[in-house]
Design brief:
The chain has helices spanning 13-27, 43-46, 95-109, 124-132; strands at residues 4-7, 51-56, 62-70, 75-83, 114-119, 136-138, 156-161. The protein is built from 4 helices and 7 strands, in the order βααβββαβαββ.
Length: 163
């Protein structure tokens, strides 16, 4: 299977919503809607000062997503990193790492010094992924000004310091 990572286009809006909400609600039982999230109903507008990427298979189906929301000149938030179930653990494609490296390259080009993210308690594989990639667990009180945190109990917050 061949996967390409591309900058988001509105033609993928519904597929992105379906992927994200399916994982949030069917797998993690978070009970969220698109309207509960500041970015999901209008991805292009929300990420206009940042970037959002989709990973597409040969049939133009969204297999993964990742976004970067700037907070200020030096800090940004990694948002909406989701993979279709069929992509998780696939060492041949290693889609999570490719999506993350795409975001990381962009963040370095923009000269960000920190990338922040939050993730729900049941996302154990995501926690391991972020920690393997150098993110540190941070207290909720340490989030930068302007960071919109999801209202989810036990949310884990991570920070990656870039050189």
């Amino acid at each position: 299977m061949k996967i390409s990572i591309q900058t988001y286009s509105d033609i993928y809006q519904k597929q992105v919503e379906n992927l994200v909400l399916g994982i949030q609600n069917d797998e993690f039982l978070l009970g969220l809607t698109a309207q509960d999230q500041p970015d999901l109903p209008n991805i292009a507008e929300f990420y206009k000062n940042g970037r959002f990427w989709v990973a597409l298979n040969e049939e133009n189906q969204v297999m993964g997503t990742i976004g970067l929301e700037p907070l200020n000149e030096k800090q940004a938030v990694l948002r909406k990193m989701f993979l279709d179930k069929s992509m998780r653990g696939n060492k041949d494609i290693n889609l999570a790492q490719h999506l993350f490296e795409t975001l990381l390259q962009y963040a370095k080009e923009k000269d960000y010094q920190e990338i922040w993210l939050d993730t729900p308690p049941p996302a154990h594989a995501a926690h391991r992924f972020y920690e393997r990639n150098g993110f540190e667990l941070m207290p909720r009180e340490s989030v930068p000004t302007g960071y919109k945190l999801a209202q989810i109990a036990g949310l884990k917050i991570y920070r990656l310091t870039l050189n």
